[in-house]
Specification:
With about 70 residues, this protein is mainly α. The chain has two helices and no strands. Helix 1 packs antiparallel against helix 2. The chain is elongated, with a radius of gyration of 18 Å. The relative contact order is 0.19.
């Protein structure tokens, strides 16, 4: 759970950085026109990616066959 929270925080920080440094002056960028919208998008994408990785890592490997 801590790893998930850290992943979301890092995603939010990266999204905020993108929103801050690549801020649209004329508002033509709908995904990250401000730093806080970039942070929200980054956190959401990081949460989605972390959930997918967590799901894939919990899959059980197929049993090994004991063919001679």
């Amino acid at each position: 759970m801590i790893r998930f929270a850290l992943t979301v925080l890092v995603g939010a920080a990266l999204g905020a950085a993108v929103g801050y440094y690549r801020e649209c002056v004329d508002g033509s960028c709908p995904l990250h026109p401000t730093w806080w919208k970039g942070a929200a998008l980054g956190a959401a994408l990081a949460a989605l990616a972390a959930a997918i990785v967590r799901r894939w890592s919990r899959r059980k490997s197929p049993p090994e066959s004991s063919n001679p």
